[in-house]
Amino acid sequence: MDIRSTIAAQQYAATRPATSPKTGEDGAAAGFAKAAGDFAQTLQQGENTAKAAMTGGADSHALVQALAQTELAVETAVTVRDKVVSAYQEILRMPV
Q: What gap in Å lies between CA 51 and CA 76, rounded to an integer?
């Protein structure tokens, strides 16, 4: 066996974990689940602040901040959705 093939096999074995898909909590699904949870939490906080402002429990400054955060979260979700739909449409247009 040639020394170059041994080195190549060792290098391949060393880089193999970097190319394997991640599973468990480090994968893309966990990141998406965390982002969805953060989105839902932001909407819930905005709703709670709005309810508190209507009953006199929060000031108008807190309400404006909560509405701005909620608006930013919704705009981000819409942008991500548009990108996913665009990518899906590109995949559908690919020749087989």
A: 24
